[in-house]
Specification:
The complex is a heterodimer of chains A (about 250) and B (about 80). Chain A has about 250 residues and is an alpha+beta fold. Chain A contains 6 helices and 9 strands, in the order H-H-E-E-E-H-H-E-E-E-E-H-E-E-H. Classes of the chains: A alpha+beta (about 250), B mainly alpha (about 80).
């Protein structure tokens, strides 16, 4: 299995196969530092942040993870500086997911083809009938179109994210230029989690789809081509158990 | 030997160049409008998801808009 470059993958699990190993010092330090930073905030908020951190520290998956600083990460546990529009003040982002970079190979290849297409047409003399200034203008226009295509594809990849918080699962979709769709389901509404990897690329680069059956208004959530699907399934299962525990102990928000 | 697509009548050559010019300039105008939409889209995306890369992406969006305007001006002047 090929690991993603560090810029796209902030997971620590590939370095340490034993997820049950003791919590590293750095995590404790990060938690302490965050507590110090938040000391000026209200007592209520302090209590909630501690709850989220407790969940992180109890998680077999998260306790080996460091907060993610990489801004391009496709798998970002505890991402720094990330929040979303419908986030509650007490809610904390535990996992930010984007589609695996290997699943974006389609538009990258198309871009490379589009870059070299004018050279192909010029070499067979297709534009010989045009004066040079017209040819040059056409060439500039063509590369502007390619720039627009790349920008759109990148924005779509970067902002179409799946977020797992300590309370909810959120799916943010930008399907066209000005259309956005935000779906959310509370973790205690999730009934079933399925991880699926299809195809050669998925097997090589360890990415796949996650299907979540919920009892909420939106019955099914799909995370497409996300890195480490088994790991994500484990995280969601842990959070589901945690929510059940909270219900039993009467700590439900 | 002359290429097949060679216009020998000067008037006809002027007409086809005008057609090419029309398509290039209207394409550049449409592209400029598209780059305005991209600015709006980036702003919408920023409001929805806050990340440390938001500021550089906004800058790229504005540079893209300026480039589109520059290309439109080049097309008007150059051809």
């Amino acid at each position: 299995m090929i690991d993603m470059p560090k810029i796209f993958d902030s997971s620590e699990h590939s370095k340490s196969s034993d997820v049950d190993s003791p919590r590293p010092k750095s995590k404790t330090e990060a938690v302490e530092k965050k507590q110090k930073t938040d000391s000026h905030k209200s007592d209520e908020k302090k209590q909630t942040v501690t709850d989220a951190q407790k969940k992180v520290s109890r998680s077999k998956v998260f306790r080996n993870e460091k907060p993610t600083r990489s801004v391009m990460a496709a798998y970002a546990p505890i991402p720094e500086g990330v929040c979303f529009s419908t986030q509650d003040t007490e809610e904390e982002v535990l996992l930010l997911l984007r589609q695996h970079p290997a699943s974006q190979i389609g538009w990258v290849l198309v871009t490379i083809l589009l870059i070299f297409l004018p050279f192909l047409f010029t070499s067979i003399g297709f534009f010989d009938f045009l004066p040079f200034n017209y040819f040059f203008a056409g060439l500039i226009g063509w590369y502007m179109l390619v720039t627009g295509y790349v920008l759109e594809a990148f924005l779509k990849w970067y902002y179409n994210v799946y977020i797992v918080t300590d309370e909810r699962i959120i799916d943010i979709d930008f399907e066209s230029l000005l259309y956005k769709n935000i779906s959310a389901a509370k973790i205690d509404n999730i009934e079933d989690v399925t991880a699926q990897a299809k195809g050669v690329l998925s097997a090589i680069f360890d990415y796949g789809d996650i299907y979540l059956q919920t009892a909420a208004e939106k019955r099914e959530f799909e995370f497409h081509s996300v890195p480490h699907p088994q790991q994500i399934k484990k995280v969601i299962n842990e959070l589901m158990l945690e929510e059940e525990q909270e219900k039993i102990e009467g700590r439900v928000r | 030997m002359q290429p097949e697509l060679q216009f020998t009548i000067p008037e006809l050559q002027i007409v086809y160049l005008w057609i090419v010019k029309f398509f290039l300039i209207s394409g550049a105008i449409l592209y400029f409008l598209f780059s305005l939409l991209v600015i709006r889209q980036i702003s919408l995306m920023k409001q929805t998801l806050e990340t440390p890369l938001n500021a550089p992406i906004t800058l790229v969006g504005w540079l893209h808009l300026l480039l589109a305007l520059f290309v439109l001006l080049i097309f008007v002047v150059l051809i």
